[in-house]
Amino acid sequence: MSDRMSQKSASSARPTTPDRAALRAEQRRLREAIRAKRSLLKGRAAFEKAEERRRFIASVSRDKANRTYQAALATADRDKQQKQQTVAHQLRALDSDQQNSEAKELRLLREQFIDKALRRAHLSVKELNGLGTGLINDLAARGVRTAADFTGVSRGAAPNGKGGEVMWILMASGHRVHVNGIGEHRAKVLVEWRRSCVRRAEDRAPRRITLADRQRIEEAAKRRRAELETRKATAEAVANEARTEAKGALDAALARLAEADRDAERAAAAKRAQYDVIAKELSRLEEQLEASYATHGAPLFRGRSGNRGVRPTRPTPARTNKSSVQKPPRYAPRPQVPVGLFTPKPVSAAKPEASPVRAGTKRPGLRWLIPVGFYLLSALTGTPVLIGAPPWVSALLGLGHVAVSTYTYGHWLRRRRQWKNEGTTTRMPKSALNVIWAWLIVAAITATSYT
Predict the structure, then answer these.
(1) How far is CA 382 from CA 50, 75, 373, 393, 438, in A?
(2) Number of CB atoms found within 10 A of residue 298's CB
(3) β strands within 261-348, DSSP E
(4) Is-contact 427 395, C-beta < 8 A?
(5) Any idea what DSSP says for residue 45?
(6) Which of 272, 316, 274 is nearest to 292 (CA)?
(7) Where does 207-311 show beta strands of DSSP type E?
(8) Rg (Cα) of the chain, in Å, rounded?
(9) N or C: fewer beta carbons within 10 Å in the chain?
(10) For 97-153, how does the pLDDT look when each residue is reduced to its tens digit (9 = 90+)?
(11) How many CB atoms are located within 10 Å of the residue 150 CB?
């Protein structure tokens, strides 16, 4: 009876182990969940890069809006300065224009007075010595009645072309007339009489403009000045309006960009919060899986490379059982601990040392450089000489020499580095040999074609 009780107590004290299939299923579920979380977290780097680019584009857009605003301000100031400079120049010229207007008005007034005086001076026998009533009537018949009707006299050929030169009277209308009986002496009398009439009219002509004329000129100057001041004020108003429009456009653009930036920041914050939640869940799942491996051991699995291995396990303290009957645990920890899914990789690994040169290998010899030197020398000397060939044929042949020598020299350098680093064979590749001989044949055929 006592033996049964002791066996029962020992069996009750033995540690309970979960079902192996259920344990493997749970670990598999944890691993799949971890892979899924890690796959989701891979998009965080691309997301942050896209956010950085978005912020850069937003800053570029703000700078562009500010540059547009500054350009609009500069344009408004330039237009205003041009218009105001033009108005200022016209205002400075207004005083001299007013003086010129007064002088012009006085000149017109004197001309009108002299013209009226000359029209009142009629030809008469008393004032024209040597001209009788008959000649005065003949002059009147030809349109010469007052001193204003003619401007002077000139000598010219007779009207019929016969009789030599005669005296012509120059009319105020621009044409000339000839009156029989008016010779050089009488024409001189007419001219002197008109000059005396002009002198008397100029002496009596006004030397200052009237008060009414002055007031009229001043009123015109005032109207012109007011018009220029209005244009100046208009230029300032247009510039202010342009500045206001530019400021409004800048504020609207910045507000639109700020609203878009706030929306993007809110979306980015929500996305980062999701990534943070995923990271926390990933950490929790990794801890659960590590605890499961530490407690029950890691099952065998086939890695990505196809080799079988085991999950890393943490060392667990040996369990002691008070019962006299002790059985080995069902899932004993494995002594080997290979690199698994959660084993951290070293931050920096030492670079592999260069493999030593194997015995029996030879260093690349200088015979590799024979075709290189041959083709380079041919390109520099223009060999072969093509007599009667077009220039482009010689140019293509020289370029081909340079290309083949460069290709061969590149192979030589690569083989030499391989010999130093890895100690590999230094045999010339077939492609290089084919290129060398093929181009030699092409050059020979070309040379024979133009010999």
Answers:
(1) 57, 63, 14, 11, 19
(2) 24
(3) 300-302, 308-310
(4) no
(5) H
(6) 316
(7) 300-302, 308-310
(8) 59
(9) N
(10) 766 777 777 777 788 888 888 888 888 877 777 788 888 888 888 888 888 888 888
(11) 24
pLDDT interval class at 354 (50, 70, 90): very low
At 240, list the tokens.
């202010």
b/e map 383-414, b = 16+ CB within 10 Å: bbebeebeeeebeebbebbeebbebbbebbee
Q: Alpha-carbon distance 17 to 297, whole Å?
A: 12
Q: Once rounded to an integer, what is the mean pLDDT over residues 372-392?
A: 85
Bridge partners (DSSP) of residue 301 are 309
Note whether 405 and 371 are within 8 A (CB). Answer: yes
Task: Calculate the CA dihedral of residues 106, 107, 113, 118 and round it to 10 degrees.
Answer: 170
Taking alpha carbons only, the member of 169, 194, 192 closest to residue 118 is 194
- Alpha carbon distances (Å) from 416 to 365, 369, 432: 9, 12, 15
Q: What is the pTM of this model?
A: 0.39
Beta pairing partners, 165: 157
For tokens 């060392």, the residue is 315
150 strand-pairing partners: 171
3-class secondary-structure state, position 156: strand
- Give the 3-state secondary structure of residue 177: strand
Q: Which residues pair with 170 in a beta bridge?
A: 152, 176
d(CA 423, CA 439): 31
Q: For residues 37 and 195, what is the distance between their CA atoms, to the nearest angstrom?
A: 120
- Phi-psi category of residue 103: left, alpha or beta, with phi > 0 → left and psi -120 to 50 → alpha: alpha
C-alpha span between 190 and 184 (Å, rounded): 10
Strands 300-302 and 308-310: antiparallel
* Confidence at residue 18, expressed as pLDDT on a 0 to 100 scale: 58
**Paired tokens of 365:** 């010899």
User: What are the tokens at 339?
Assistant: 């690199």
Q: What would the pLDDT profile of 272-322 be if each residue is shown by its tens digit?
A: 999 999 999 999 999 988 988 888 876 654 444 333 333 444 444 444 444
Which residue matches tokens 């000059």?
Answer: 195
- Does 333 sit behind a cis peptide bond, omega within 30 degrees of 0 on the bond before it? no
Q: 198 - beta bridge partners? A: none
Residue 172 φ/ψ, nearest 5 degrees: -70, -25
Distance, in Å, from the CA atom of 422 to the CA atom of 433, rounded to the nearest integer, reads 23
CA distance 435 to 401: 11
Q: Which tokens belong to 288?
A: 């659960």
Q: Residue holding tokens 């680093």? A: 421
Distance between CA atoms of residues 406 and 375, nearest Å: 9
